[in-house]
Amino acid sequence: RLADSLNAGVNDSTLEGLSHAKHLRVLEMSNGLWTDRGLRHLGQISSLRELNMFGGNVTSATFVEHLPQTLTRLEVCAEFTDAFCEAVRDHLPNLRHLNISACYRITNHGIGAVLSIDSLRILDMRQMRGLTDACIDSLLRAGKLERLDLRHNDFVTKQHASQLQLALPKLTNLQFSE
To answer: Directed axis angle between helix 82-91 and helix 108-115, to 10°?
Structure first.
């Protein structure tokens, strides 16, 4: 936070510099000063497998199409909408782990989009204010999910948890708030 207050956090210039790190596999950055234009530089890092970008001021999903398709883990927390989920579905075919907790503007439609990613095994959707119990129907068809975090979603009931555990044969870890 101190770095951010001094305008010294990760910014577009930092991301441009990182684009030359050809062996970078994991990048964790939060609450940066990056823009959509800066995030596009990450697409030049073909070795990048994991990206954690909590915070930041980006709400557009246009940078997703520039991320390396080899990305297997993506963690975000921002004002993204269903368009972000659709871009992730369309451009990140190897994604295994997605954390979209507290992305309040994502709705049931967006969850349906990410659940259609064939490689997705882990989904963290804690504290999603834009969702309703109607997304449970989509989750019940996500037979390849191994881990699912639904904590702090008021619509999730004990009955929903039981239904999910019965319907998803590969689910080994389900978290929800009672």
So the answer is: 10
pLDDT tens, position by position, 80-107: 999 999 999 999 999 999 999 999 999 9
Contact 40, 63 (CB under 8 A): yes
Compute the half-sphere exposure of residue 103: CA atoms within 13 Å on the CB side of its CA: 29
Instruction: Identify the pLDDT of residue 56.
Output: 75
Average pLDDT estimate for 24-28: 96
Average pLDDT of the chain, as a whole number: 93
Longest dimension (CA), the chain: 51
Q: What is the pLDDT of residue 131?
A: 97
Q: Which residue in this structure is represented by tokens 């389900």?
A: 174
In DSSP notation, the chain reads -HHHHTT-SS-HHHHHHHTT-TT--EEEEES----HHHHGGGGG-TT--EEEEES-S----GGGGGS-TT--EEEEESS--HHHHHHHHHH-TT--EEE-TT-TT--HHHHHHHHT-TT--EEE--S-TT--TTHHHHHHT-TT--EEE-TT-TT--HHHHHHHHHH-TT--EEE---
Pairwise CA distance, residues 91 & 68, whole Å: 9
